[in-house]
């Protein structure tokens, strides 16, 4: 019973343990008993007695050592439990911080609604809507609905959400955009959807932009971005599609975009395509865009790109345009 209560092993019978039950006293008492028992016995009997006592002494030491190992395992188990419990604390803190952020957003939303100044209220609601998109979609939706319909902040948010939706499901994004009541918001949504779709199918994106986005800066911006992506892989197809567009800002912006992209990747191919235009007006349109594109380049770079034209008349036209352009 006393050995079971021991907390520290004592492998050396003459050395006192650091604490707990004094196991060395038990071993010393056994030594004294052993000496008294050996008194008056023959050497053979003493050797037999020692051979009997030695296993008992070894057993005592082993029991004392096992007490220490068991105590160490208990302490290690307790420390590991403490580490496990500590490892869960950051998650709790993260949950708490997320709740704090949501609470702060909702409080900011209430304060924004109570703001008497219209400009400051619009700015605050816009910021809350942007911050809440990835944290609290409900409060982001409420902040968006409180914005002025058709305003700049509302259009930017509409375009952002349309782009994210089109990246995962273009069909659903198109259906959602068609349900928007405000014409300006609907144009922003379709413009962004067309640009996202152009990464997979530029021809479909171009058709979508011309069909759903009304004339104006939103369509021009979408056409330029679509043609830029299209020209990276199939510049000839992009140029052929631009040729089908009616005269206007979208066609001019598209021609400029394809000339810049194609001229950087394959100047000889662009020169051959321009020389092959049957209509003089269409050819002159590309010549003018080509001259505008190379105007800011070095003399050496311009000479190399001009040398790609086999038609001397086209080279002369480009040189005349460059001379007339302001520095």
Word description of this protein:
This protein has 327 residues and is mostly helical. It is 78% helix and 0% strand. It is built from 17 helices and no strands. It has helices at 2-5, 23-38, 43-87, 89-113, 118-132, 137-146, 152-168, 170-178, 183-197, 202-212, 217-233, 235-242, 249-265, 267-275, 280-294, 299-306, 312-324. Helix 5 runs antiparallel to helix 6 and helix 11 runs antiparallel to helix 12 (235-242). The longest helix is centred in the N-terminal third of the chain and has 45 residues, at 43-87. The chain is elongated and about 70 Å long. The protein starts with a helix and ends with a helix. Mean pLDDT is 77; it is low at 1-36, 53-59, 61-65 and 80-94.
Topology:
Layout: H1 2-5, H2 23-38, H3 43-87, H4 89-113, H5 118-132, H6 137-146, H7 152-168, H8 170-178, H9 183-197, H10 202-212, H11 217-233, H12 235-242, H13 249-265, H14 267-275, H15 280-294, H16 299-306, H17 312-324
